[in-house]
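Troubleshooting log. The previous structure file for this entry was overwritten by mistake, so regenerating from the original sequence record. Sequence copied from the archived sheet and checked twice against the printout by T.R.
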Amino acid sequence: MINLEGVRVKVPASTANLGPGFDTLGMALSLFAWLELKPAPKTVFRLYGEEMKGVAKDKSNLIYEVAQKVFDEAGVSVPELEISMASEIPLARGLGSSASAIVGALYAANELIGAPLSAEKLFEMATALEKHPDNVGASLFGGIISAVWDGSSANHVRIEPPADLEVLVAIPSFQLSTAKARQVLPDRITMEDAVFNVSRASLLTGALAAGRLDLIAAAMRDRMHQPYRAPLIPGMERILEEATDHGALGAALSGAGPTLLALTERGAGRRDELAAFLQNVLADHGISAKMLWLSPSTEGVRKLLPEEKIPFAAESLV
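Regenerated output below.
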């Protein structure tokens, strides 16, 4: 049965790779997007906030297209929608903006028609759309995700984030498309580099699952993608090498970038020192960046309760 009152959902941002886990590891972050879907006589869009500027307001809109895939899969027709969305997640910065939109649209559309599709089905649909499972898995299930995709099916394990884990992100003022960040990657890597990454990704997964924060620095090293992407983000190489000298447990490029992240232990101190280090290194290369302290989001996408507020009213239409 179609919910004529509509559905409101909240979906977290995500970071992918965490260094060595290329297209495999993802973590949900406490930065959010909100989406409301309602059946309507005619499709209309209400987009709020700076992060929604430039987003399509016709049926080529990603939210609309993804919602229709859910309806088609379920054999239900909802051709016209009222779509309202606000987001804190910056576009093309490596924080899973497209993945959060895909997951939010899949989940909201499914709820709108009575949730006939399972979470695992939504995960497979999201992965097929995004082409890798790490970001969408984190936004869908919350926490830390280790996942694989073989082109037709996806599997994942969810890891509860260590309670003391905090995340500092440095979000540069410029955008970097995933396509451009993938173009610089080699078609092949050496056996030595493959073993290096497999061993680090395995250690990182185990360390996060066991809460062994002392192993993160060694485990977050990567030879598969970050060395090739470093020229796209001036200052990145130094940050990855030296962040642990300024209080980080480890550092990595967030997804395809250009955002950089540092994992820290809550209450360990040196927060100001670490934030200043990242900011100053980027500034030395003429890059301004927004610094945010975030937590892993243990909750994935979910339907809002009737009494919960969404920030539509606090924002301006774009």
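The CA atoms of residues 148 and 155 lie 5 Å apart. Archived copy saved in two places this time.
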